[in-house]
Amino acid sequence: MSKETTEIDTAELGEKIVKVLKTIYDPEIPVDIYELGLIYDVFVNEDNDVKILMTLTSPNCPVAESLPVEVEEKVKSLNAVKDAEVEITFDPPWTQDAMSEEAKLELGML
């Protein structure tokens, strides 16, 4: 397999992962976690192992235990994904500035 094909595949897989992330909502805010800016990075290696670096709206978020598990499970459900791991970070801490324009509009902040 040429390197070019692999890059396209990982880019396509990245887009599919983002679509899945957009189906997961913060239970306290009616906006998906991607638009909220909780996803800091998505890494896909050539073996289709996925690592997601994300944060929560606060360290004592009520879904601190369940949300990362939900993210891992939904991403792993994609056929092309071999494995998925979620790493939670609070550096930098989440602020409302991380939200997309769409999220801010949805919450009446614009």
UniProtKB/TrEMBL annotation:
TM helices/strands, residue ranges: none
| Gene3D superfamilies found in the cross-reference section | Fe-S cluster assembly (FSCA)
InterPro entries (UniProt xref): Fe-S_Maturation_MIP18, FSCA_dom_sf, MIP18-like, SUF_FeS_clus_asmbl-assoc
Ranges for the MIP18 family-like domain?
15-88
Pfam families per the UniProt record, alphabetical = FeS_assembly_P
Entries under SUPFAM superfamilies matching the protein: Fe-S cluster assembly (FSCA) domain-like (SSF117916)
What name appears for this protein in its UniProt entry? Answer: SUF system Fe-S cluster assembly protein
Protein source organism: Costertonia aggregata
Q: What is the lineage of its organism?
A: Bacteria, Pseudomonadati, Bacteroidota, Flavobacteriia, Flavobacteriales
